Amino acid sequence: MPLTRTSGLSFEVDDSLRGVVTLGWLEADGVTATPLLADYLAERDAVLQAFQTRYAGRPAADIPGVSENRSMFHRLGIDPTKTRPSSEALLRRVLQGKGLPTILPAVDVCNLASLEHQLPLGLYDRATVKQAVFARLGRMGEGYEGIRKSVVNLSGRPLLADDEGAFGAPTSDSARTQVGESTTSLLTVVYCPNDRPGEHLSALLGRIADLLARYCTATVHLVRTVQ
After folding, report:
1. Which of 45, 99, 160, 169 has the most CB atoms less than 10 A away?
2. Is 35 exposed, middle or buried (CB count within 10 Å of its CB: 0-12, 13-18, 19+)?
3. b/e for 151-174, b at 16 or more Cβ within 10 A?
4. Beta strand spans in the chain (E)
5. pLDDT for the residue 30
6. pLDDT of residue 147
7. In terms of Cα–Cα distance, which of 195, 219, 168, 199 is closest to 19?
8. pTM value?
9. pLDDT at position 8, please?
């Protein structure tokens, strides 16, 4: 299993995930929690309106990207009707007229990008991620305290782990590495099904970099894909 060095963090993908998912990796510094301006709100609302106009009344499985994510989850042993990819959960919320949640600027812009491209992602305070990062399947009994949730069960499910244990998944992330108002550096990991063309992953990473730079004062210093 080849090891990829990434700005002080190492990243290893377990064989159990190879052939199923390609991971996108983005790191950024200089992030601020300054409230998002009217320009962003107008851009966001235009995207939400376009989704509601284009997809209202259509089954979620007919929307580009959803079926591929569900297939990826099935191949990883997850029932996507019980534990949905985070991107599909955002889509369902928007089509129900609830809009996107307002959390923190960096989280909000990444949620918008995930919605647009229908790829699940995790966003982390990079300063809390400890050295080596592993993408693998969860071990028996493995889990963590989730953001606004009790313990998230990760047994047999895809996850990210560092030297202190599991911290991320394509469904729900951990409280330990969550982004807060004092966060200044970010790690974003995107989960792209291998049967979806790679340009979708590249486009999402580019969109995240653009939104973070324009609206969160971020400097993106590393973008790559890892299979």
Report:
1. 169
2. exposed
3. ebbbeebbbbbbeeebbbbbbbbb
4. 3-6, 9-13, 21-29, 121-125, 133-137, 143-145, 151-153, 158-162, 165-168, 186-193, 219-226
5. 97
6. 85
7. 195
8. 0.93
9. 59
209 Cβ neighbours under 8 A, 6+ residues apart? 26, 28, 220, 223
Domain span at residue 171?
3-226
pLDDT at 152: 85
Q: How many domains in the chain?
A: 1
Place of tokens 């919605």: 115
Torsion of Cα atoms, 170 then 192 then 98 then 59, to 10°? -120
CATH number at residue 220: 3.50.40.10
Pairing of strands 133-137, 9-13: parallel
Return the residue matching tokens 């550096």: 185
